[in-house]
Amino acid sequence: MKALITDIGYGDTKYGFLKDGELQLRKFPTAVVRLGPALKTEVEVEGTSDEMVFEGVRYLVGEEAFFAGKPISTRKKGFIPTYAPLLIAKMIRDSGQEFDAIAVSVAISDYKREHIETLKKRISSFEINGKRYSFSEVYVFPQGYGIYRDVFPKKTDEAVFVVDIGFNTVDLSFYVNGKPRKEFFRGFPGYGTSRIIRNVIQRIREETGQLISEIEANEMMKRGGKIKLLGREYDFSSIIESEKEFYAEELFSEIEKELGESWTRASSRIVAGGGGYFIPEEFKEEMALIIPEAPEFSNVRGFLEVLNG
User: Fold this and answer.
1) How far apart are the first and last CA of the chain?
2) Which Pfam family name is an example for this entry (predicted)?
């Protein structure tokens, strides 16, 4: 089985695969731009253009879409099921590999049979640029489980909370003796990294008069706060650091309010996802948080661990 392991987020699409026994980890912005309808005679030949023709419409995806126009909002209802085939095709195209199995993940709030079956049907077989993509095996995992298995690949008797900070939502899950305790599962819509990103965008607009997109702001924050606007380079690192502190205080206050002593008495508290980069060091030390290396890829590494058994 040759598996493509994915973590399609509302900010970045992360994926991984084994090549010559080595794990390859890659990502691109979750950006999709609709260019317009494709003529019946207009079908891009795979590999000759960045454009993708899917279900009669021309699109640009990822980095190519980043500068091409206004991307479709990832907060649009049903974004991932609708556009997952385009994102998956880009992963395969960029990897230069062929796969017969795929692993995807969904938010805890969406981890329901109906949603899972709809997503499986949508991505198990589709056609882009005249090329048929098919997978004999499709695995759907809840967000956060990959993080748990990344940090604890072997069974542990510890009580572990996992905080998966995505772009829109924070998914919180709990495991005891290696088994999920669903009564403690929580979703915190609106507490993802888009919360801090919107604050940063507003402060940049107040200082420069320039409005940047959420995707641009997300990339800028990961680069340490530097961005070039109208030919001039700005350094917003001090703004970002203060917003990180405010964001972390808000998030963990909400978690503690929701879970009470259960949160503080757990053996381990893991924080990962793209938001793992936005937790100040003092919060990590004060709350004894485990933040894995390259936290945005933690789900991908963990899902691979699950498939490898």
Assistant:
1) 13
2) ALP_N
**pLDDT tens per residue, range 14-50:** 999 999 999 999 999 899 999 999 875 555 555 446 8
All domains of the chain in start order, with CATH = 3-142 (3.30.420.40), 150-293 (3.30.420.40)
Q: Alpha carbon of 281 to those of 209, 277, 284, 289: distances in Å?
A: 31, 10, 5, 10
Express as a percent the part of the chain with pLDDT over 70.
Answer: 97
Beta carbons of 227 and 203 less than 8 angstroms apart: no
Q: Are strands 131-134 and 159-165 parallel, antiparallel or unpaired?
A: unpaired
Whether the Cβ atoms of residue 245 and residue 280 lie closer than 8 Å to each other: yes
Contact between 279 and 248 (Cβ < 8 Å): yes
Which pLDDT value is given to residue 182?
Answer: 87
